Records
---
Amino acid sequence: MQSQMPLYPEQASNFAPNVDALMAYITAVCVFFAVAITAAIILFFFKYHRKKPGDIGVPIHGDSRLEALWLVIPAVLALTMFAGGAVVYVQFRRPPMDTLDIYVIGKQWMWKSQQPNGLKEINELATNGLVPDLTILLDLPPSDGLVRRTSSADRLEAEPLPFHDRVRSEFLSLAEADPDRYLVLDATRDSSQLSRAIQAAVRERLPDPVPERAEEITGSIPVIRE
């Protein structure tokens, strides 16, 4: 299938013209020398090939001027390419004052970008903006939670305690940033107290009156039962 990508994509930033100009210069130099060298090889092949079996080539003595040109010209071209690349790099390193700061987190299995307004690109792409009406966060010190496990630790549970402290802190930060959607409960409390608190929070968000089918489904969830 033919690629739909143009030779020069649409410029999406004010840095693009300089990058395009640098690439055009490098491409032009490479094409020029490729064509010139290929033409010279073909020309010399026909001009200097042995026309008779007994022909003897004429000795050629070196020309220092030619040798100097072969050294100076490539060096000048390479330095101009380097200078152009350095200028573009410096421009990239100094963003304009009115740019939008986006923080990117790279992990083994994903890239996540975080904008100042709280928008997380990976969440937006995965859920198309869909978020739960209520997120219940049972907050428990990691040192207490890890001793409750009844099976062998998986890769995440085997991480050291500071790792779990950072995870807890991140979840609490999310809850603090969106208090209307997060319900943070102290998980050290009695399970019956937690159950009643969760039940009350969920029922506040259910329609009134609650549809019979919804009441049947939510009533079957252990945590919702009285």
---
Amino acid sequence: MLKLYHAVDTIGRIDNQRIAQWIELLRHRPGDEVFNALVGVFCNTDRPTRCFLDQEYAGRIFLAVKPPCSQDIQSVIKRTLATWDLSIEQLPFYFSDVFGAEAVLKALDALDRVDNSQQEKKAILTFRFWLHARRDN
């Protein structure tokens, strides 16, 4: 993901051609490797001023490649809640596409029952919003 961060730092905007190149490249990589790299962008705390663009790139790639996730959905979502930029709808859409909306909603229900920070609570509500908004369209 160093190339993603470098692109954000040097270009400062979405570059659809670069995204298309990365998508083609990542389709030939092991799914778990791609998943871990992309979800890592959503968990990164080292780039707060660049997180929107970082996550927008990663989100678009997530939806295009749809790498499989062999990890527990609830724990993966939990890892992203504190750092996910709530305007990046691709993250909930990815989980819905890969696991199914009902599985994502069940994971969110379980997460609602544990102690969460205010940011995590807001993220859970927003996750639900994006899932319902997509279903309603």
---
Amino acid sequence: MTSLELRKINNYPEWDTEAGINSVINFIQNQQLPAGLNARQQRRFEEKFGNGNWVVENIDNHPCLFYNPPILDEERQITNENRRIKLQVVRPNEHNQKLREVYDDSGSGVGINLFYAKVAMKYLGIKRTETTDFLKKQGNYQLTHNYQKVVNSPILARHPNERWGADLIFLDKYGFELNRRDGVIQPTNLNIAPAQGNNNFNNNNRVYRYALVVVDFFFKKIWANP
């Protein structure tokens, strides 16, 4: 049996209510279908529970339903010896009791995934959300999450000038200090001279505030201009 098949069986709607479980037990013991089902629902019910995979046993004078599928031998005979899987269907009012038993047997510090796996190995009808909520209430549990590392794909270029990358370098802390006077930010340390031959400048534009940096992804060549 695959885990997908097991999850499918574990989510049967009959496990949600006491009446639903009793209807399956009554069908296994007496071959009586639940009342109120149409023809399609009756066929579906027989397909799920009339395949020989279910048995009823009395525990403390109460009928209990088990998923106990057979493994046929060479003569295709079914015996108790070749029934390996045996999962008990838990009634809704017994969920917390069964969860407590599994938790006490597992010891402290068990993670959410492992705890649910241990429950699913013994019982049907207890969903993953219930095991998670139960474990969170115990105070001593471990949250586990499969971390998927994100790998960034490299940016490649097949020929020159196909792709460029550009960014700005802020030169404020390298070229001058800013001084706020009368609500206006003004440079106070003018230590970078303008380019030669440029006579159209004053004290407010004598400092380079930014530098443009461009890279060609193919050649890996970099240009930087203030």
---
Amino acid sequence: MTPTSEGFPAVVPIRPISTPPRPDAAGASAVDAALDEMMLVDGAVACALLDVDAGLLLGIRDDDVDFDVARAAHGYARVLSAQLSAMARLNLDEQVDDVVVTLDHQHHLVRPLRATGQLMLYLVVDRDRTNLGMARYRMAAYDRGLLTRRESGPPPTA
């Protein structure tokens, strides 16, 4: 999140888009890998990857859900932005691990990816078929894996 001149994170305007942009081959495979990994969570019904700073939806996966996943992901990006803004106003020197919204039949999980600083992973799971702790763990493990790969650099070439 980009801070404002007052030190508060800016509320990011989210541009609605109808289809995800087409990243290059390397970017597309990374997005696909992230989304495929999240859909392996027991009870996963939808997921998305967003570039929060740019307001761009990078990709979506869903199991024929009855809501607009793109619109929901953009809405939860605003929730995350509001949370970060509130934390800054309270002078909390903390980071958001995740935001969980519990509905009658679903959990909606949002995780800002620390490894990138600008991407947000959004996961929707069925409450009756999911262990919420395991879903949160899988999102965190994915983020840690990104951070480890980023710190270690590209694999050596032969």
